[in-house]
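Subject: Abasic site processing protein structure
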Amino acid sequence: MCYSATLTKEAHELEARIQLKLRFPEEYRPYYFQSAFDHQNLYIIPQQKSSEIVPATWGLVPKWAMKGDISEFLDKNYTNNARSESIFDKPSFKDFPLTNRCLIAANGFFEPHHANGTAFPYFCHYKTDKIFFFAGLYSEIDDGLYSTTIITVEANELFSEVHNKKKRMPLVLDTEFEQEWLRPDLEELHVKDLMRVGFTTAEFECYPVTRDLYK
């Protein structure tokens, strides 16, 4: 799971990391804590317009929900994360894995660690603190207006100890797979292979932070 994320880098650092420009640089603001349940913006590189970095509402809005009340849909449906095992089958996601994949920028995220019946947030980031990219899906609600979801996979050894209840982790792509994730010619089997082997080999650091984060 990935319910909260961090992107503390300045605009020029994000642009330099991926060698692309922000579509709306004047609107960009770094953030230390972004909750998925607030449905604010993450920053993505969409597959079909991969020459720019754009903001996208956290919580994917499927095609069949775009004609209704989007805020109501997001309040009633959990589309902040998408399980890799079901993105080709679940109604909210199945229209997007071949045509609407995206990279989602971050330099940290929080995972719940359970001990004695209590959840403690752990902050997870590269030891180098550099920007990485989650594998995601997106929809274009209107011209230039996007929504997105972070793909999650079964936890590896480290994140099984951190997220020790549901044992999931967001799919942080290794740098060698970032551009491949955006390729327009991938078929279903190739996408599934990327989700299976694409997790980064870079070293993570994870440590507990205050439970006040949940307030």
